[in-house]
Amino acid sequence: IRFLGILYAYLLLGLVLEWIFTPIEASANFGFIFNDLSSNAQNALLRDFTSFFVASFLFSIFGVITLNHIWFFSVGIIYISAGIFNLIAIYVHGTGFNQIFIFEFILGTWPIILGLSIYFKTTLLQ
Q1: Structural contact between residues 23 and 34, judged by C-beta atoms closer than 8 angstroms
Q2: Strand, helix or coil at 6?
Q3: CB atoms < 10 A from the CB of 18, how many?
Q4: How much is the pTM?
């Protein structure tokens, strides 16, 4: 569990560092042309995406350190919700279709499986 949790956190750390050090490239991966956005939009994009990835990275690290399933469930909920709201935006609000939701569901399922593994292991041992 710790190995898979660290691997997961490492992937998230890559996203965090990309948003911090190369935001133009990071935003291009999500379909944004960073320099075409207003300064307020640039700020919102950097702030929201960086905090999103930093929080999920920290939740993952806390889960690895404490082996408390709640931390993994927390990060899983973030990404599953992002995937659901991505689909809602596409189908209800008519936004552009993207396949990022697949990655969001993978990033949500992975920690939930880790959390369930910890939960069932601790529950069965009691």
Answers
A1: yes
A2: helix
A3: 17
A4: 0.89
Residue count of the chain, please give it: 126
Q: What is the DSSP letter of 35?
A: G
The span from the CA of 126 to the CA of 117, in Å, is 14
- Identity of the residue numbered 49: F
Distance CA 3, CA 1 (A): 5
Q: Which two three-digit tokens encode residue 68?
A: 């408390």
- CA atoms of 9 and 62, how far apart (whole Å): 10
| C-alpha 113, offset from chain centre | 15
Q: Which amino acid would we find at residue 63?
A: G
pLDDT tens-digit profile, the chain (126 residues): 999 999 999 999 999 999 999 999 999 988 889 999 999 999 999 999 999 999 999 999 999 999 999 999 999 999 999 999 999 999 999 888 888 889 999 999 999 999 999 999 988 877
By C-alpha distance, which of 73, 110, 102 is closest to 86?
102
DSSP output for 31-62? T--GGGS-HHHHHHHHHHHHHHHHHHHHHHHH
